[in-house]
């Protein structure tokens, strides 16, 4: 296998894993009590500043403009970040 083929396999594996993140995050959110669901920012390690490599909520597939998220409850910043972040 050439190094290009190995690279493609690695990228494919990464994409498969990224597809699992939102599903897993939604599954965790669905299993929470109403009290836990009311404030799950800590669970998803939400922060009001960008994550690594400039990742922001506004660039996430789960972001709901102007200040919502499909996974993190409550008002969030478009410049924030959490562990459920998935590139648009």
Structure notes:
- By secondary structure, this protein is mostly helical.
- The chain has one domain (3-69).
- The chain has helices spanning 3-30, 34-38; strands at 63-64, 68-69.
- Strand 1 (63-64) and strand 2 form a beta hairpin.
- The radius of gyration is 15 Å and the shape is globular.
- It starts with a helix and ends in a 19-residue tail after the last strand.
Q: Could you outline the blueprint of secondary structure elements for this entry?
A:
Elements: H1 3-30, H2 34-38, E1 63-64, E2 68-69
Antiparallel strand pairs: 1-2
Q: Biggest sheet, open or closed, and with what strands and sense?
A: 2 strands, antiparallel
**Strand/helix succession:** HHEE
Query: How many strand elements?
Result: 2
Model regions low in confidence, pLDDT < 50 over at least 5 residues? none
Number of domains: 1
Radius of gyration, taken over Cα atoms and rounded to an integer in Å: 15 Å
Helix content percent band: 25-40%
Kindly report the oligomeric state of this protein: single chain
């Amino acid at each position: 296998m050439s190094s290009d083929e190995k690279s493609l396999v690695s990228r494919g594996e990464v994409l498969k894993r990224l597809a699992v993140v939102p599903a897993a995050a939604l599954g965790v959110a669905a299993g929470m009590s109403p009290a836990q669901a009311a404030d799950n920012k800590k669970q998803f390690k939400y922060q009001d500043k960008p994550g690594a490599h400039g990742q922001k909520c506004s660039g996430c597939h789960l972001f709901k403009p102007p200040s919502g998220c499909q996974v993190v409850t409550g008002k969030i910043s478009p410049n924030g970040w959490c562990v459920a972040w998935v590139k648009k």
